[in-house]
Amino acid sequence: MLQKIPQPQLPWPLSNLLRSWSDNQPARCIAEPAVGGIVCCELLFDLASHTGIYVGNGNVVHLDGDGRVLCSSAHIFRERLDGFNSAISVYTDCLNMTPQGCQKVADRAKAETGKRYPYHLLDFNCHRFTARCLTGTSAPDVWLFAQIEALQQGNGWRVWQ
């Protein structure tokens, strides 16, 4: 009987870097998210993530760690934690290569800009804010990125170039 040869496992930060490099190949990227689409980036070498809603003109509405709802460029959105994170890319919800979104979601997000909420990592965070924009409800059961993925309209994430 043949024995299966174990495949070498890359150290976690290196495998994460290689995945990001692969995701950033031009054939796998999209030019711009759909208005009202979910956008996300990794934090802390993919131990956590940050989400928001694309509202057009290169801007993302998101809840920051101080509880402020901001409308920021993709660069500012990605440079969370004063740039002390490993985010290389901003991803967006896509159906194959077509970005997904909804104008009503963008309108909800824009209406929240400038407001403050009592931020809490496990209770009211960026994922709950994003879910509120997506659903139009308080989304009390959403606080993890996996729960945001369940609200995706598409079938995967693509890098926003």
Report on this model:
By secondary structure, the chain is an alpha+beta fold. The model has no long low-confidence stretch (mean pLDDT 84). It has 5 helices and 8 strands; from the N terminus they run αβββββαββαααβ. Strand 2 (38-43) and strand 3 (48-56) form a beta hairpin. Strands 1, 2, 3, 4, 5, 6, 7 and 8 form an 8-stranded mixed beta sheet that branches. The relative contact order is 0.21. It has a single domain (29-160), classed as endopeptidase fold (from Nostoc punctiforme) (Alpha-Beta Complex), CATH 3.90.1720.10.
The CATH homologous superfamily is called: endopeptidase domain like (from Nostoc punctiforme)
Q: Roughly what percent helix?
A: 25-40%
CATH class: Alpha Beta
Based on secondary structure, the structural category is alpha+beta
Q: CA-to-CA gap between the ends?
A: 48 Å
Q: If you consult CATH, what is the topology?
A: endopeptidase fold (from Nostoc punctiforme)
What average pLDDT do the residues reach?
84
Ranges with pLDDT <50 over ≥5 residues?
none
Count up the domains.
Answer: 1
Shape call? globular
Write the layout of secondary structure elements.
Blueprint: H1 12-23, E1 29-30, E2 38-43, E3 48-56, E4 59-63, E5 69-73, H2 74-78, E6 90-95, E7 98-99, H3 103-112, H4 126-135, H5 145-149, E8 156-160
Parallel strand pairs: 1-8
Antiparallel strand pairs: 2-3, 2-6, 3-4, 4-5, 6-7, 6-8
